Automatic annotation (TrEMBL):
<dbReference type="Pfam" id="PF01256">
    <property type="entry name" value="Carb_kinase"/>
</dbReference>
<feature type="region of interest" description="Disordered">
    <location>
        <begin position="504"/>
        <end position="539"/>
    </location>
</feature>
<feature type="binding site">
    <location>
        <position position="257"/>
    </location>
    <ligand>
        <name>(6S)-NADPHX</name>
    </ligand>
</feature>
<dbReference type="GO" id="GO:0052855">
    <property type="term" value="F:ADP-dependent NAD(P)H-hydrate dehydratase activity"/>
</dbReference>
<feature type="binding site">
    <location>
        <begin position="57"/>
        <end position="61"/>
    </location>
    <ligand>
        <name>(6S)-NADPHX</name>
    </ligand>
</feature>
<dbReference type="Pfam" id="PF03853">
    <property type="entry name" value="YjeF_N"/>
</dbReference>
<comment type="function">
    <text>Catalyzes the dehydration of the S-form of NAD(P)HX at the expense of ADP, which is converted to AMP. Together with NAD(P)HX epimerase, which catalyzes the epimerization of the S- and R-forms, the enzyme allows the repair of both epimers of NAD(P)HX, a damaged form of NAD(P)H that is a result of enzymatic or heat-dependent hydration.</text>
</comment>
<feature type="binding site">
    <location>
        <position position="122"/>
    </location>
    <ligand>
        <name>K(+)</name>
    </ligand>
</feature>
<keyword id="KW-0547">Nucleotide-binding</keyword>
<feature type="binding site">
    <location>
        <position position="155"/>
    </location>
    <ligand>
        <name>(6S)-NADPHX</name>
    </ligand>
</feature>
<feature type="binding site">
    <location>
        <position position="443"/>
    </location>
    <ligand>
        <name>(6S)-NADPHX</name>
    </ligand>
</feature>
<feature type="binding site">
    <location>
        <begin position="413"/>
        <end position="417"/>
    </location>
    <ligand>
        <name>AMP</name>
    </ligand>
</feature>
<dbReference type="GO" id="GO:0110051">
    <property type="term" value="P:metabolite repair"/>
</dbReference>
<dbReference type="GO" id="GO:0052856">
    <property type="term" value="F:NAD(P)HX epimerase activity"/>
</dbReference>
<feature type="binding site">
    <location>
        <position position="374"/>
    </location>
    <ligand>
        <name>(6S)-NADPHX</name>
    </ligand>
</feature>
<dbReference type="InterPro" id="IPR000631">
    <property type="entry name" value="CARKD"/>
</dbReference>
<comment type="similarity">
    <text>In the C-terminal section; belongs to the NnrD/CARKD family.</text>
</comment>
Amino acid sequence: MNELLTPAEMSRADRLTIDAGTPGIRLMERAGRAVADATAFRHVLGTRVLVLCGPGNNGGDGFVAARILAERGYAVRLALLGDRSRLSGDAALAAAAWRGATEPLDGDGVVPMLAQAGVVVDALFGAGLARTLEGEARRVVEAVDRSGRPVVAVDLPSGIDGRTGAVCGAALHAQTTVTFFRRKPGHLLMPGRAHCGTVITADIGIPDWTLREIGPALRQNCPALWLDRLPAPRLGDHKYSRGHALVLSGPALRTGAARLSAEAALRAGAGLVTLVAPEAAAAIAATHLTAVMIEAFADAAGFAALLADPRRNAVVLGPAAGVGEGTRALVAAALAGRAGLVLDADALTSFADAPETLFDRVRGRPAPVILTPHEGEFARLFPDLAERAVGDRPKTERAVAAARRSGAIVVLKGTDTVVAAPDGRAAINDNAPPDLATAGSGDVLAGIAGGLLARGLPGYEAAAAAVWLHGECGRRAGPGLIAEDLAAELKPVLADLYRRAALPPAEPPPVAIRQEGPTLPPRRLLVGSQDEDEPGGTD
Ligand SMILES: NC(=O)C1=CN([C@@H]2O[C@H](COP(=O)(O)OP(=O)(O)OC[C@H]3O[C@@H](n4cnc5c(N)ncnc54)[C@H](O)[C@@H]3O)[C@@H](O)[C@H]2O)[C@@H](O)CC1
Ligand SMILES: [K+]
């Protein structure tokens, strides 16, 4: 269920289902019913409903939802953008089955309609949004947003690009978004995610086999992607069998970042963690660390000697390491060895002038390398793929292009962190609370990734698991958290995961609608029922 479908892939899923014998109007009927259910769940009978329909099939879903809500006794007003005679296909069938008035929709006329409405169903544009909103369409969207009325969005909040999450000129903010079959990248990527509210994914009868035909590359980051690679500690394990991570410390007054990483690596399950530090820094770190060991080195050759033991199978470099030739030499020494690497912060910025010299050493290396840049560091290594350089190219594509170029797993951090592999796999993370935007948070993430590499996870799985665990730790630590709080939260988070992994696979839920997000209590949504009447029935 963690596949994400671009609008083009979703349209293919629709087409495959229709070609296999399910009429399009039946899919639309179920889609509209799911929207009606979600609206009725939140808004009691007596609430005045304003349904705003666009010229395509998103509008068709709106006509169905309007009809079903009216049948249930809601006072429903419906307004259509554009000429009714230009509706075609399933949308025309759905419109023909709507018995109420169809009012014209424009930026001025919608204002008094909004004043009377208790809830707005946004069926203006969904997967078919093809260009920047202008003219009346834009004025309507802006008027709805200004009104502050609660919005139930059909498929996507109008104005959000389902592939990229971008705002196309203007976009609504929904309280609830009802999408179909699988979520779209635009529900998870920013700023789209901030426009969606609670996302409900409704089953409209598209079979799972369509996914095999489509082969979507994008996933939501969740334990199903990597949990089988992260087994609970077993009887007979000893500390050496759980791996040994090394974490490079910065100079004497900058040891904190590496200490955060080292403790996180240990909590993530590495059997041993050693902080490796210049002499003066080692003495300072020693006053803070207990379970984490410490070793000092004098220069790059001394550092390389510390890596020679093959049991030292993971290295974290970068947090507060310092930018320049010294760090470059240490990174080169680590890349020459056989351990898995996490390169973060200063280890990335140190290669800003010559990123190819880094990538040349990464490509073809048998052990994994994980790069963990935020957008600023990413722009230094991949200036042509930076956010401001690429127009509407989504974060997922930028991260995959960077992974292919560098040969590394790329963790492009942010509210919507993307983990990408050189083979094209990519996952979008959506469990990180904004509280994680705090000093040292990235050091903890790098440490978790290093700890998981030490445990033997492959690079992509280690990176994706680290990002998800980091997010969960942030959620548990809650508002007011500081980076020091995070690693200890790995204990309950891992305990939950191991418990979950030990359980037999869950039965499918008894309802046909799944919801993501915090606001609605589970299980009370109405089921997309089997007795759809099909207006203008084509079968
Ligand atoms: N059989 C299907 O394909 C199904 C489709 N479904 C619904 O259909 C939607 C997709 O339908 P469509 O492909 O018709 O696309 P939409 O209905 O999202 O939008 C397409 C229409 O909007 C116009 N348009 C696009 N961008 C515009 C802009 N910036 N300004 C003004 N007009 C613009 C296009 O010219 C076209 O008329 C989904 O989001 C979903 O809600 C669901 O009913 C499930 C089944
Ligand atoms: K919409």
